[in-house]
Structures are given as C-alpha cells and as structure tokens.
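User: Teach me something about this protein's shape.
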Amino acid sequence: MDKSKIRHILDLSKDEKRAFVNSFDSIMSDCDGVVWNFTGPIPGVDRALQLLRDHGKKLAFISNNGMRTMDEYAEKFRLMGIEHQDYTVVHPALTIVKYLKSTGMRDAVYCIATEVFKNYLREAGFTIIDGPTERIKDDYTSKPVGAFAEYFRADPSKPKVGAVVLDIDANICLPQLMKATTYLKQNPDCLFIAGATDYTIPLGSGMEVIGSGHFIDLLEKASGRRALVLGKPGQALAEFVLEQFHITQPERTLFVGDMLPQDMGFGARCGFQRLLVLSGGTNKTMLLEHDKEDELPNYYASSFADFIQLFKEISSDD
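Assistant: First, the predicted structure itself:
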C-alpha cells in the first residue's frame, strides 16, 4: 500500500467525507486507547459515538482486555451516555468460553489470566487449574527426579487438563509457563488457546508495559505448538465475529483501533475498512515506518472525536 494514500479523515474533501461516511453501516471498535485510555475517557468520543448512532451506524466493540468485567464495560459506556442496548462488546474470555463449549470440552482448563478472566470460565462450568503461586524450592538434586520437577508434573489427584489458556496476567511467572509447557508437550490433544496478543500495553503519558504477546511466543517456542488466537488479530476470532454478527458485506463495516498489528491486522483479516486513531498505542511516525501492508489502515485520525468535525463539515452549506 502506498502510505501517501492513507489520509487523515479531516483532510478529505467534503465529497470524499460524505462518501466515506456513506461507505459503512457499522462501526466496530477497540476500547482502550480509542474510546478511553488508562486515565479516563478520551475527550469528545462520547459525542462522536452519539453522532454515529444518530446517522444510523450500528456500534460494536471488540476488546483484547480481559481484565475488565462486562459490568465494568457497561458502566464505562453508561457514563458516556451509551446504554447497553445500543452496542455489543466482544470480550476475550467469553469468546474462549463459546469456543470451548463448541468443542464439547469436559476436561479442566489450565489458565494463566486474571481472576476476572478465570471467573468467566468458572461461571460457564469449566474447572480451572492454575499456579503454582508459592515460591519454588531450589532443590534440583533429590532423587528420583527432585522436588523441583514435582512442581511441573501433572497431579494425578487433579482433573485431566484438556486446554491451556493464556491471556494478560500481571502476575505471570516462569513456573506457570513451565507448567503450561508440560501440559502441552505431554498431551498432544491438549488445546492451546491465546487471548490478548498485545506486545505492549499503553498506560498513557508515554508509559507502556509488557503485554502477553511475548509470553505467547515463548510458550509456542517452548512447547512446539501454535496457539489458537481468540483475541485480536487472530483468524479464529475474525471468523467468530463474522459469524456472530452475520456479516455478509464486510466492506460495509469500519473497524477503528489504535494498534497496527492487533487492530488494523484484525480489520484486514475480516475484510473491514480500517481507521487508525493516534490517541493510543500508535503515533504517526510509527504508522509511516510500518512495513506490513496487511496491518495498515485505509484512513487515520487524531482521535475518534474527529468525527465531530467531520459531521460538522459535511452538514454545512458550501
């Protein structure tokens, strides 16, 4: 893609702005860095979303953030003046629940994730195994295999593990990854499922922390297995979204996000139009330097709030 053709939506002519708005019926959007950031709502986004709804656009949100409950999402949207009947949120934990149920999973799930995430699996009837959380003793020599190895053996007193699930977890540790590797290598039928694939998590004010993408890569290399990705930009999630929302004309959906691999890559896999906003994890320099065509947007904006000015301009008299 010629990057000079990726234009800011406010740099379009009035006719191009009208054509752009008329080119999609639905908005699908990320949340963090797009609708709000770590410190609170992004100014003007509430008004922009209302204008889009007033112009007949349907709203849905696809988040990689499994640390927040659905009630917390609902409250954040309510504070922005958007009631629950006006949108849908695709939550990574609930997507994984639906997938596991579709496989007829009866075995336990070894899960590295937040308690919020694990609780959604528990509420769906799955047995969750996690840990170890205690400090492991530095005993590598005791016979027959050493106390160290015992931490990673499958415990015969616990249910059989049929799936390993890895998502964002600020408390992730090496013993958990060792345990997960053991389950995946010892049982070739054990499912390996990943949620969020983000390599960094922007926290605002130029601060970012390590995301779960690095740990997914590590576990894939250690186990020799490829994860089924049910977070963005996974192909499995793309197929799930297209089916769930009965999308037959993906080009009539605009996907809005702040990350190039996760959001723009996901939008491309779905066949959606793509709008990158510079209010979160990507700045203009990063956009111009990015060299993966399937992770580039069709348009960009400084913020979702730019839709306010766009609608003002297309409704004004010449």
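Now, about its shape. The longest helix spans residues 174-186. The CA atoms of residues 106 and 125 lie 9 Å apart. If you'd like, I can walk through any region in more detail.
User: That's plenty for now, thanks!
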